[in-house]
Design brief:
The chain has 250 residues and is an alpha/beta fold. It has a single domain, classed as Glycerol-3-phosphate (1)-acyltransferase (3-Layer(aba) Sandwich). Helix 4 links the parallel strand 3 and strand 4. The radius of gyration is 18 Å and the shape is globular. Keywords: Acyltransferase, Lipid biosynthesis, Lipid metabolism, Membrane, Transferase, Transmembrane, Transmembrane helix. It comes from Agaribacillus aureus.
């Protein structure tokens, strides 16, 4: 069984690479002109659908009906697995990722990410400040942001989340745009971050919760906004614990 899992993992990696290489020339066209960058969202969404279809892992997407795709938001998902990034391709609004600067080292993919998204070195105060400024500009121009509020895959005991950092919530308050908590309940089982890096059985799901409004809020409200977002995601993760356990035993 382990052999088949390894083969399936290699196959998934191959599909990821092939679909990206096919789409890369289109990414280059989009990158070439600043006003075309927003079309990168649609290409990323197509890529996500193609990838998960290609590895026969459909993603169940649950979107709260209050979300208006024409508005901009700060999407805050939990982060336990490398699958979380491609799954966020199903986000129901045109967005820019804020991710770790180490992504830029990936051949071709890193170039695309650096041009269309925002990379941050969390160990550098200068980089963090520059990222904050870039993110604020993106928000002011009407595009959404996807920011993992844990700051990376930091939890040692998923589905227990690591503490949230302030950045996403500071931007949401200062730009007066809503926060959308996002729960990704099963990725940590299907592709755990434990050094094994083997795809396992189990379904994939992503839940976009009701927006949390920031209108009228000030920086003094940052902690309560952070706590509320954490609570929404954490409560939903707890509801999936039993299902997650059943998946893990299959």
């Amino acid at each position: 069984m382990k052999v088949w899992k390894k083969l399936y993992t290699y196959y998934a990696g191959l599909i990821f690479g092939i679909t990206f290489l096919i789409l890369f020339p289109i990414f280059l066209i989009i990158i070439s002109k600043k006003s075309w960058h927003r079309f990168g969202y649609h290409l990323n969404k197509f890529w996500a659908k193609a990838f998960f279809a290609g590895i026969a892992k459909p993603v169940e997407v649950e979107v709260h009906p209050v979300i208006n795709k024409d508005n901009n938001y700060v999407f805050c998902p939990n982060h336990f697995s490398y699958l979380d990034i491609p799954v966020m391709g199903f986000t129901p609004a045109n967005f820019v990722f804020v991710g770790k600067s180490s992504i830029k080292k990936a051949p071709l993919f890193g170039y695309m990410f650096d041009k269309l998204h925002i990379a941050v070195d969390r160990q550098s105060k200068i980089s963090s400040y520059e990222t904050y400024k870039k993110s604020s500009v993106v928000a002011r121009h009407g595009r959404s942001l996807v920011i993992f509020p844990e700051g990376g895959i930091l939890s040692k005991k998923p589905p227990q989340m690591a503490r949230f950092k302030d950045g996403a919530f500071r931007i949401a308050i200062e730009q007066q745009i809503p926060i959308i908590p996002v729960t990704i309940p099963f990725n940590w089982i299907v592709l755990p971050e434990n050094g094994d890096f083997t795809l396992k059985r189990g379904k994939l799901k992503i839940v976009f919760h009701e927006p949390i409004e920031t209108a009228g809020k000030k920086l003094e409200d940052l902690q309560s906004l952070k706590d509320r977002t954490f609570e929404v995601i954490n409560d939903h993760l707890k509801k999936h614990v039993n299902n997650a356990g059943r998946q893990g035993n299959t």
